[in-house]
Amino acid sequence: MGALGPHRPSLTGIAVWLAAAVGLVLVQIGSLALHLFRGEFRDIWLDIVLLALAAVTVWLATTWL
């Protein structure tokens, strides 16, 4: 999967930075779920902030395309 990363945007027509932002949203969702599962509620605020920033980046990227 990592080897296909640089080629995926050219194959699908998705901009590289949009694919990266969507990937960061998915990573942050996984991180938030892991912290919730482990009961680490003190670390959730950072996941929420980073998830919001990545989601805003995706939103701005799709509205300005």
Give the topology string: H per helix, E per strand.
HHH
Output the number of helix runs: 3
**What is the strand tally?**
0
Average pLDDT reading: 80
The helical percent reads over 70%
Shape: elongated
The secondary-structure class comes to mainly alpha
Main beta-sheet strand count, sense and barrel state: none
**Uncertain regions spanning at least 5 consecutive residues:** none
C-alpha Rg, in Å? Answer: 14 Å
Give a summary of the structure in a few sentences.
With 65 residues, the chain is an all-alpha fold. 74% of the residues lie in helices and 0% in strands.
Structural account:
This protein is 74% helix and 0% strand. The protein is an all-alpha fold and 65 residues long. The protein is elongated, with a radius of gyration of 14 Å. The protein contains three helices and no strands. The two termini are 26 Å apart.
Q: Any key phrases for this structure?
A:
single chain; mainly alpha; 3 helices; elongated
Topology:
Blueprint: H1 8-12, H2 16-38, H3 44-63
Helix pairs in contact: 2-3
